[in-house]
Amino acid sequence: MNDEIKDTDQSEESPDETSGVTGQSEEVKAYFRETHEALEKLEKVEWRDKFNFRCHKGLDCWTACCKNSLIFLTPYDVLRLKQKLGVRSDEFLEKYTEATVDPGFGLPSLRLKIVEGEGCPFVSPDGCGVYSDRPTSCRLYPLGSAVSSGSGAAESQRTHFKVEEDYCLGWGEKDSWTVENWVIDQDATDYNMYNEMMIRLTLSPKLVAPDKLDDKKLSMFYMALYDLDRFREFIFDTSFLSKFEVEKDIVEKIRSQDEELLRFGMRWVEFSVMGMPTMDLKKK
Ligand code: SF4
Ligand code: SF4
Fold first, then answer.
1. Across all residues in the chain, what is the average pLDDT?
2. How much is the pLDDT for 250?
3. What digits encode the pLDDT tens for the residues 132-182?
4. Ligand 2 atom 4: the closest Cα is on which residue?
5. Helices (H), the chain
6. Dihedral angle at the C-alpha atoms of 269, 275, 280, 283, nearest 10 degrees?
7. Whose atoms come closest to the Cα of 69: which ligand?
8. Where is this region: Disordered (predicted)?
9. Contact of 231 with 273, CB cutoff 8 Å
10. pLDDT exceeds 80 at position 112
């Protein structure tokens, strides 16, 4: 984990009245503008647009993409990969990822560590070693997706575009797809659902203001969304449940279900980082 994101002290949080940011800083606006300009240069595709593509071991470029790409991870990507590998989230994050604070968003940004000369830590001569649980960007490739926003989450809009790398020979193949068919074929439905939830969270004006998030809030954001096993300990091994009202059925589910814990992590971030009224303190 990058030094820029410090360990949380695991103290109980309370709503922070000072985190109610209402606008975007000039730095964030510039970041969105630059990102938008870069995406504008790529060819956009609509849901029903067609493209020809096939990836298979017989191509000379087999695994070239896994050796040449930076793979960014969403919280749901981390959940699926640590489950696939049968390790704790903190072990997975330490061994396989690098975290930085995105200079535009001001929020933690996670990517797979590159192995010198080999690329992705999961690539092998046979292909992807975590194929059934590969990250969103690998799943959608050779398409990419981005979300643009107007003044807030309600106006967010997903765009798909072609990622046509020179080395990728799959584009010369005959198999025909629509964007919709490709997304379904790559089994990206659950990924899309959790990623959309995350996008709604991060596009909130309460978060899109890096100068307002101190190290403690950044750490809480990181733990509750990416480091789920430590977040579970934070809930069950501290006085958390004696201080906050949490529905009994939710408590039972988050004890063992990572997916439910991720949903709860988003709710906790809304409360502890964004100052939203999504949790109640227990009455004394
Ligand atoms: S996770 Fe799998 S598909 Fe993605 S870059 Fe690594 S080896 Fe390739
Ligand atoms: S066809 Fe493209 S996606 Fe498939 S292995 Fe080659 S470079 Fe990677």
1. 84
2. 97
3. 999 999 999 999 887 765 444 444 567 889 988 899 999 989 999 999 999
4. 55
5. 26-40, 64-68, 75-85, 89-96, 136-140, 179-185, 189-202, 215-225, 228-236, 240-243, 248-256, 258-272
6. 130
7. 1
8. 1-26
9. no
10. yes
Q: Is the peptide bond before 15 cis (omega within 30 degrees of 0)?
A: no
Contacting residues for 261 by C-beta, under 8 A, at least 6 apart: 228, 231, 232, 253, 254
**CB count in 10 Å sphere of residue 252:** 11
Joined together, the tokens standing for residue 126 give: 């046979």
Give the closest ligand to the alpha carbon of residue 97.
Answer: 1
Determine the length of the chain: 284
Tens of pLDDT along 66-81? Answer: 998 889 999 999 999 9
What is the 8-class DSSP label of residue 137? Answer: H
Question: Per-residue pLDDT for 60 more than 60?
Answer: yes
Q: Which of 110, 119, 129 is nearest to 4 (CA)?
A: 110
- Judged against a pLDDT cut of 70, whether residue 99 lies above it is answered with yes
Q: How far is the CA of 261 from the centre of ligand 1 (A)?
A: 25
- To which residue do tokens 């046509």 refer? 164
pLDDT of residue 136: 95
In angstroms, the CA 104 to CA 24 distance is 11
Centre of ligand 2 to C-alpha 149, Å, is: 31
Tell me if 52 sits within 8 A of 162, measured CB to CB: no
**Which of 205, 209, 192 is CA-nearest to residue 154?**
205
Structure tokens at 160: 């798909």
Ordered by start, the domain boundaries in the chain are 26-202
Distance 225 CA to ligand 2 centre (A): 31
Band of pLDDT at residue 205, cut at 50, 70 and 90: confident
What phi and psi values does residue 50 have, to the nearest 5 degrees? -105, 150
Question: Using an 8 Å Cβ cutoff, are 191 and 136 in contact?
Answer: yes
